[in-house]
Amino acid sequence: MTVAAATGYPQYGGANRTFIPEIWSTKLAVKYYEGSVLQQIANTDYEGEIKNVGDQVNIRTIPDITIRDYEKGDTLTYENPESPLVELLIDRAKYWAMAIDDIDAYQSDLKLMDDWAEDAGEKMKAVLDTDVLGSIYADVADENAGTTAGVISEDYNLGETGDPVALTTENIIDYIVHLGSVLDEQSVPETGRWVVLPSVLANRVKRSELKDASLAGDGTSILRNGRMGMIDRFTVYRSNHVAWVTDGTDRAFHVMAGHKSALTFAMQITKTQHIVGETSFEEKLRGLSVYGFKVINGKGLAHLYATAG
After folding, report:
1. Cα dist. 143→137, 167, 261 in Å?
2. Which of 11, 200, 243, 299 is most buried, most CB within 10 Å of its CB?
3. Do 290 and 90 contact (CB within 8 A), yes or no?
4. What crossing angle do the helices spanning 199-206 and 172-185 adopt, rounded to 10°?
5. Which residues does residue 269 pair with via DSSP β-bridges, in sequence order?
């Protein structure tokens, strides 16, 4: 027999034995979490500056210096290099909160609060990935996107609104190489490059002529961080949080590639609190994350606008 519950409060025992069992397995239904790629594609160089105080970091950038011809006796031309500041704002916050009555917690054979807190933490990772991948494509340098990408050659069609590139098992490796060439023309370092593909395009890679590349590993399961292997100096990640839009009748993805130095992320607060109820016999658990991210060098990112052909 279970203790009665107030109107509107879920009943975990009695006829609705969800968590308070007569004879139940001690395992909850298996849940599948999307591995976070954020820590793989962004640097956290400025996190320490805002960890304790402040809501903004002014990032100094390196100016472009002009190289001029010289002949003996020439009068030198001096310039005053400008180094514009990039502002990293800590202006985003997400939280979760839950509660359970002490009776339910005691009568359950499961560690409910532990299980739910773990679930919330995993979902927080997914929310942050979605937030970042859903906006950084807008800050890519103009020369690294569109139908004439390539700051030197303008030779690469990476798709545009109304005309996305259709990726197939036959051409997807070519387009990943195109992304690499676009970054090459911006003199982006070759080590530390990454590309994030949605699952449907990762499927094309696995069935392409380089399908064995998807098996290249470093001892870490693909299920943990989405890492698929290396293709043309890129560490390839799979994520279900790649941004997409409906373009005509097609689903077009904003596939991002780049170097870790181009994107910075800072988490100022990540706090979990356990609270004992004051007005009832219940436990409360809540978590807060305060963070910000910024593209600090759009030349270090490339944007492929594509559909699954």
Report:
1. 13, 21, 18
2. 299
3. yes
4. 110
5. 290
What's the pTM? 0.77
Residue 193 has pLDDT above 90, yes or no: yes
pLDDT, position 187: 95
State phi, psi for 281 to the nearest 5 degrees.
Answer: -85, 85
pLDDT tier, 220 (very low <50, low <70, confident <90, very high otherwise) = very low
Asked if 24 contacts 109 with a C-beta cutoff of 8 angstroms, the reply is: yes
Contact 46, 266 (CB under 8 A): yes
Domain residue spans of the chain: 35-309
Residues in the chain: 309
The tokens describing 137, both together, are 């494509």
Question: Above 70 in pLDDT, residue 221?
Answer: no
CA atoms within 13 A on the CB side of 255: 32
Q: Residue 107 above 90 pLDDT? A: no
Q: What angle do CA 103, 106, 109 make, to 5 degrees?
A: 130
Taking only the tens place, the pLDDT of each residue in 154-191 is 999 999 999 999 999 999 999 999 999 999 999 999 99
Q: In this predicted structure, what is the pLDDT of residue 223?
A: 41
Query: Do 293 and 128 meet the contact criterion of CB atoms below 8 Å apart?
Result: no
Pairwise CA distance, residues 109 & 24, whole Å: 9
